[in-house]
Automatic annotation (TrEMBL):
Full protein name: HTH-type transcriptional regulator YofA
Cited PANTHER family: HTH-TYPE TRANSCRIPTIONAL REGULATOR LRHA-RELATED (PTHR30579:SF7), TRANSCRIPTIONAL REGULATOR (PTHR30579)
Organism from which the protein derives: Pseudomonas fluorescens
PROSITE patterns registered for this protein in UniProt: HTH_LYSR
One Gene Ontology MF term: DNA binding
Protein backbone atom coordinates (compact mmCIF):
# COMPACT_ATOMS: atom_id res chain seq x y z
CA UNK A 1 0.00 0.00 0.00
CA UNK A 2 1.44 3.35 -1.03
CA UNK A 3 1.40 6.11 1.57
CA UNK A 4 -0.06 9.32 0.16
CA UNK A 5 2.23 11.44 2.35
CA UNK A 6 5.27 9.71 0.91
CA UNK A 7 3.94 10.22 -2.60
CA UNK A 8 3.29 13.89 -1.86
CA UNK A 9 6.90 14.34 -0.69
CA UNK A 10 8.23 12.47 -3.72
CA UNK A 11 6.25 14.72 -6.10
CA UNK A 12 7.51 17.80 -4.29
CA UNK A 13 11.15 16.71 -4.61
CA UNK A 14 10.71 15.97 -8.32
CA UNK A 15 8.97 19.29 -8.96
CA UNK A 16 11.56 21.30 -7.03
CA UNK A 17 14.54 19.31 -8.36
CA UNK A 18 16.19 19.53 -4.94
CA UNK A 19 15.80 18.04 -1.47
CA UNK A 20 16.60 21.41 0.08
CA UNK A 21 13.92 23.31 -1.83
CA UNK A 22 11.43 20.49 -1.31
CA UNK A 23 12.08 20.57 2.45
CA UNK A 24 11.43 24.31 2.52
CA UNK A 25 8.20 23.87 0.58
CA UNK A 26 6.74 21.20 2.85
CA UNK A 27 8.14 22.79 6.03
CA UNK A 28 10.21 19.76 7.03
CA UNK A 29 13.90 19.18 7.54
CA UNK A 30 15.95 17.98 4.61
CA UNK A 31 16.80 14.76 6.46
CA UNK A 32 13.09 14.02 6.98
CA UNK A 33 12.34 14.53 3.29
CA UNK A 34 15.27 12.31 2.34
CA UNK A 35 14.10 9.59 4.75
CA UNK A 36 10.58 9.67 3.29
CA UNK A 37 11.88 9.23 -0.25
CA UNK A 38 14.09 6.32 0.85
CA UNK A 39 11.10 4.71 2.59
CA UNK A 40 9.07 5.03 -0.62
CA UNK A 41 11.92 3.45 -2.59
CA UNK A 42 11.93 0.55 -0.13
CA UNK A 43 8.17 0.12 -0.53
CA UNK A 44 8.27 -0.05 -4.33
CA UNK A 45 11.57 -1.95 -4.47
CA UNK A 46 13.23 0.42 -6.92
CA UNK A 47 15.48 3.46 -6.91
CA UNK A 48 13.39 6.48 -7.85
CA UNK A 49 15.87 9.36 -7.77
CA UNK A 50 19.49 9.84 -8.75
CA UNK A 51 21.37 12.19 -6.40
CA UNK A 52 24.59 14.11 -7.04
CA UNK A 53 27.39 14.11 -4.47
CA UNK A 54 26.07 17.18 -2.70
CA UNK A 55 22.53 15.81 -2.52
CA UNK A 56 21.27 19.17 -3.70
CA UNK A 57 20.35 18.24 -7.25
CA UNK A 58 18.42 15.17 -8.29
CA UNK A 59 17.12 13.48 -11.45
CA UNK A 60 14.38 10.90 -11.88
CA UNK A 61 15.05 7.25 -12.77
CA UNK A 62 12.86 5.31 -15.23
CA UNK A 63 10.97 3.77 -12.31
CA UNK A 64 10.65 7.22 -10.81
CA UNK A 65 9.12 8.53 -14.04
CA UNK A 66 6.63 5.69 -13.99
CA UNK A 67 5.68 6.27 -10.37
CA UNK A 68 5.36 10.05 -10.64
CA UNK A 69 2.56 9.59 -13.18
CA UNK A 70 0.55 7.36 -10.84
CA UNK A 71 1.43 9.45 -7.78
CA UNK A 72 -0.12 12.57 -9.29
CA UNK A 73 -3.28 10.66 -10.22
CA UNK A 74 -3.60 9.14 -6.76
CA UNK A 75 -3.22 12.50 -5.03
CA UNK A 76 -5.71 14.10 -7.41
CA UNK A 77 -8.25 11.34 -6.68
CA UNK A 78 -7.62 11.72 -2.96
CA UNK A 79 -8.27 15.47 -3.12
CA UNK A 80 -11.38 14.91 -5.21
CA UNK A 81 -12.75 12.42 -2.68
CA UNK A 82 -12.07 14.76 0.25
CA UNK A 83 -13.77 17.65 -1.54
CA UNK A 84 -16.79 15.53 -2.41
CA UNK A 85 -17.21 14.29 1.16
CA UNK A 86 -16.67 17.75 2.61
CA UNK A 87 -19.19 19.34 0.27
CA UNK A 88 -22.25 20.98 1.78
CA UNK A 89 -24.37 19.27 -0.89
CA UNK A 90 -25.79 15.97 0.30
CA UNK A 91 -26.78 13.32 -2.22
CA UNK A 92 -30.49 12.65 -2.00
CA UNK A 93 -32.00 9.52 -3.50
CA UNK A 94 -35.20 10.09 -5.47
CA UNK A 95 -37.15 6.91 -6.16
CA UNK A 96 -39.62 7.10 -9.02
CA UNK A 97 -42.20 4.47 -9.92
CA UNK A 98 -42.82 4.06 -13.65
CA UNK A 99 -45.49 1.91 -15.35
CA UNK A 100 -44.23 -1.20 -17.14
CA UNK A 101 -45.56 0.12 -20.43
CA UNK A 102 -43.91 3.55 -20.16
CA UNK A 103 -41.16 4.11 -22.72
CA UNK A 104 -37.88 3.56 -20.80
CA UNK A 105 -35.85 5.69 -23.23
CA UNK A 106 -38.35 8.50 -22.91
CA UNK A 107 -38.16 8.45 -19.12
CA UNK A 108 -34.36 8.28 -19.18
CA UNK A 109 -34.26 11.37 -21.41
CA UNK A 110 -36.54 13.28 -19.03
CA UNK A 111 -34.54 12.28 -15.96
CA UNK A 112 -31.26 13.18 -17.67
CA UNK A 113 -32.63 16.70 -18.07
CA UNK A 114 -33.48 16.86 -14.37
CA UNK A 115 -30.03 15.55 -13.42
CA UNK A 116 -28.40 18.35 -15.37
CA UNK A 117 -30.38 20.87 -13.33
CA UNK A 118 -29.96 19.06 -10.00
CA UNK A 119 -26.62 17.20 -10.06
CA UNK A 120 -26.91 16.43 -6.34
CA UNK A 121 -29.84 14.09 -7.01
CA UNK A 122 -29.40 10.34 -7.27
CA UNK A 123 -32.25 8.88 -9.31
CA UNK A 124 -33.70 5.38 -9.13
CA UNK A 125 -36.62 4.10 -11.19
CA UNK A 126 -38.79 1.15 -10.24
CA UNK A 127 -41.01 -0.39 -12.91
CA UNK A 128 -44.24 -2.17 -12.18
CA UNK A 129 -47.96 -2.39 -12.71
CA UNK A 130 -49.78 0.73 -11.58
CA UNK A 131 -51.52 -1.19 -8.79
CA UNK A 132 -48.12 -2.35 -7.51
CA UNK A 133 -46.68 1.17 -7.72
CA UNK A 134 -49.52 2.55 -5.63
CA UNK A 135 -48.82 -0.08 -2.99
CA UNK A 136 -45.12 0.76 -3.02
CA UNK A 137 -45.97 4.41 -2.47
CA UNK A 138 -48.13 3.45 0.50
CA UNK A 139 -45.28 1.32 1.90
CA UNK A 140 -42.74 4.14 1.48
CA UNK A 141 -40.65 2.16 -1.03
CA UNK A 142 -40.88 4.96 -3.60
CA UNK A 143 -41.49 8.71 -3.36
CA UNK A 144 -43.15 9.62 -6.65
CA UNK A 145 -44.95 7.59 -9.30
CA UNK A 146 -46.58 7.82 -12.68
CA UNK A 147 -49.62 5.55 -12.77
CA UNK A 148 -52.28 4.56 -15.30
CA UNK A 149 -55.79 4.78 -13.85
CA UNK A 150 -59.42 5.75 -14.42
CA UNK A 151 -59.80 9.50 -15.01
CA UNK A 152 -60.29 11.67 -11.91
CA UNK A 153 -59.96 8.70 -9.57
CA UNK A 154 -57.89 10.34 -6.84
CA UNK A 155 -55.53 13.14 -5.83
CA UNK A 156 -52.50 13.86 -7.98
CA UNK A 157 -50.04 16.58 -8.89
CA UNK A 158 -51.09 16.51 -12.54
CA UNK A 159 -52.85 14.17 -14.94
CA UNK A 160 -53.05 13.69 -18.67
CA UNK A 161 -55.75 11.88 -20.67
CA UNK A 162 -54.45 8.85 -22.52
CA UNK A 163 -56.21 7.80 -25.71
CA UNK A 164 -56.49 4.03 -26.16
CA UNK A 165 -56.91 2.01 -29.34
CA UNK A 166 -57.44 -1.60 -30.33
CA UNK A 167 -54.47 -2.83 -32.36
CA UNK A 168 -53.79 -5.93 -34.41
CA UNK A 169 -51.21 -7.27 -36.82
CA UNK A 170 -51.60 -6.85 -40.56
CA UNK A 171 -52.75 -10.45 -40.97
CA UNK A 172 -54.91 -10.71 -37.84
CA UNK A 173 -58.67 -11.02 -38.31
CA UNK A 174 -60.82 -9.17 -35.78
CA UNK A 175 -64.09 -10.16 -37.42
CA UNK A 176 -66.60 -12.58 -35.90
CA UNK A 177 -65.16 -15.43 -33.87
CA UNK A 178 -63.20 -15.81 -30.66
CA UNK A 179 -60.79 -12.89 -30.37
CA UNK A 180 -57.20 -13.84 -29.45
CA UNK A 181 -55.94 -11.22 -27.01
CA UNK A 182 -52.39 -10.16 -26.17
CA UNK A 183 -52.67 -8.60 -22.72
CA UNK A 184 -50.74 -7.23 -19.78
CA UNK A 185 -51.18 -9.13 -16.47
CA UNK A 186 -54.20 -8.85 -14.20
CA UNK A 187 -54.45 -5.46 -12.54
CA UNK A 188 -53.57 -3.58 -15.73
CA UNK A 189 -56.22 -1.02 -16.66
CA UNK A 190 -55.81 -1.81 -20.37
CA UNK A 191 -56.60 -5.46 -19.70
CA UNK A 192 -59.60 -4.49 -17.58
CA UNK A 193 -60.91 -2.19 -20.31
CA UNK A 194 -60.52 -4.79 -23.03
CA UNK A 195 -62.24 -7.60 -21.16
CA UNK A 196 -65.07 -5.44 -19.78
CA UNK A 197 -65.95 -3.91 -23.15
CA UNK A 198 -65.84 -7.24 -24.96
CA UNK A 199 -68.04 -8.85 -22.31
CA UNK A 200 -70.56 -6.02 -22.54
CA UNK A 201 -70.57 -6.35 -26.33
CA UNK A 202 -70.87 -10.14 -25.94
CA UNK A 203 -67.79 -10.74 -28.05
CA UNK A 204 -66.10 -14.05 -27.18
CA UNK A 205 -62.38 -13.80 -26.39
CA UNK A 206 -59.41 -15.76 -25.10
CA UNK A 207 -56.00 -14.73 -23.80
CA UNK A 208 -53.50 -15.90 -26.40
CA UNK A 209 -50.43 -14.07 -25.09
CA UNK A 210 -49.40 -12.27 -21.91
CA UNK A 211 -46.45 -10.08 -20.97
CA UNK A 212 -45.41 -7.43 -18.43
CA UNK A 213 -43.42 -5.69 -21.14
CA UNK A 214 -44.73 -3.07 -23.55
CA UNK A 215 -42.25 -4.22 -26.18
CA UNK A 216 -43.44 -7.79 -25.64
CA UNK A 217 -47.07 -6.86 -26.27
CA UNK A 218 -46.15 -4.69 -29.25
CA UNK A 219 -44.15 -7.53 -30.82
CA UNK A 220 -46.89 -10.09 -30.14
CA UNK A 221 -49.47 -7.89 -31.86
CA UNK A 222 -47.19 -7.21 -34.83
CA UNK A 223 -46.56 -10.95 -35.26
CA UNK A 224 -50.26 -11.78 -35.18
CA UNK A 225 -50.31 -13.51 -31.80
CA UNK A 226 -53.24 -11.45 -30.64
CA UNK A 227 -55.20 -8.21 -30.53
CA UNK A 228 -54.48 -5.75 -27.75
CA UNK A 229 -55.36 -2.40 -26.21
CA UNK A 230 -52.52 0.13 -26.27
CA UNK A 231 -52.08 3.86 -25.80
CA UNK A 232 -52.21 5.61 -29.17
CA UNK A 233 -48.63 6.77 -28.52
CA UNK A 234 -47.45 3.13 -28.41
CA UNK A 235 -48.84 2.05 -31.79
CA UNK A 236 -46.12 0.85 -34.18
CA UNK A 237 -46.06 1.10 -37.99
CA UNK A 238 -46.55 -2.69 -38.11
CA UNK A 239 -49.85 -2.37 -36.25
CA UNK A 240 -53.32 -1.83 -37.67
CA UNK A 241 -56.08 -0.01 -35.77
CA UNK A 242 -59.19 -2.12 -35.23
CA UNK A 243 -62.32 -0.12 -36.02
CA UNK A 244 -64.83 -2.95 -35.60
CA UNK A 245 -64.41 -3.36 -31.82
CA UNK A 246 -66.11 -1.41 -29.00
CA UNK A 247 -64.79 2.17 -28.66
CA UNK A 248 -62.33 2.69 -25.81
CA UNK A 249 -62.76 5.63 -23.42
CA UNK A 250 -59.45 7.25 -22.43
CA UNK A 251 -57.54 6.35 -19.30
CA UNK A 252 -55.37 8.76 -17.33
CA UNK A 253 -51.64 9.07 -16.68
CA UNK A 254 -51.37 10.59 -13.20
CA UNK A 255 -48.39 11.97 -11.31
CA UNK A 256 -48.76 11.05 -7.65
CA UNK A 257 -46.57 10.95 -4.55
CA UNK A 258 -46.45 9.31 -1.15
CA UNK A 259 -48.38 10.74 1.78
CA UNK A 260 -46.66 13.47 3.74
CA UNK A 261 -44.62 16.51 2.84
CA UNK A 262 -42.05 16.16 0.07
CA UNK A 263 -38.50 17.45 0.31
CA UNK A 264 -37.45 20.42 -1.78
CA UNK A 265 -35.68 18.15 -4.26
CA UNK A 266 -38.69 15.84 -4.53
CA UNK A 267 -40.93 18.81 -5.20
CA UNK A 268 -38.47 19.96 -7.87
CA UNK A 269 -38.70 16.57 -9.57
CA UNK A 270 -42.50 16.61 -9.43
CA UNK A 271 -42.55 20.03 -11.07
CA UNK A 272 -39.96 18.99 -13.67
CA UNK A 273 -41.96 15.87 -14.61
CA UNK A 274 -45.17 17.88 -14.76
CA UNK A 275 -43.68 20.43 -17.13
CA UNK A 276 -41.91 17.89 -19.35
CA UNK A 277 -44.94 15.65 -19.74
CA UNK A 278 -47.23 18.63 -20.27
CA UNK A 279 -45.06 19.77 -23.17
CA UNK A 280 -45.39 16.32 -24.72
CA UNK A 281 -49.08 15.83 -24.09
CA UNK A 282 -50.48 19.35 -24.05
CA UNK A 283 -51.87 21.23 -21.06
CA UNK A 284 -52.10 19.07 -17.95
CA UNK A 285 -55.20 18.79 -15.83
CA UNK A 286 -54.26 20.10 -12.38
CA UNK A 287 -55.85 18.63 -9.32
CA UNK A 288 -55.83 20.86 -6.25
CA UNK A 289 -55.74 18.09 -3.69
CA UNK A 290 -54.04 16.64 -0.65
CA UNK A 291 -51.05 15.86 -2.87
CA UNK A 292 -50.29 19.58 -3.03
CA UNK A 293 -49.00 21.12 0.16
Amino acid sequence: MLDLELLKTFICVVDEGSFTRAAERVHRTQSTVSQQVRKLEELVGHSLLLRDRTGQNISVTEHGEMLIHYARRLLALSSEAVEALASDVDLEILRIGVPEDFDARRMATILAGFKREKPQARLETISGMSTDLKQRLANGDIDIALVKREPDSGPCWAAWPEALVWVKGAQTDSADGVLPLALFPQGCIYRQRAIRLLDVAQRPWRVAFGSHSLTGIQAAVACGLGISVLPASAVLPEHSICTDLPPLPPTELALISRDGALSGLQRSLVEFLRLELSQEKGIAHHHESSQIS
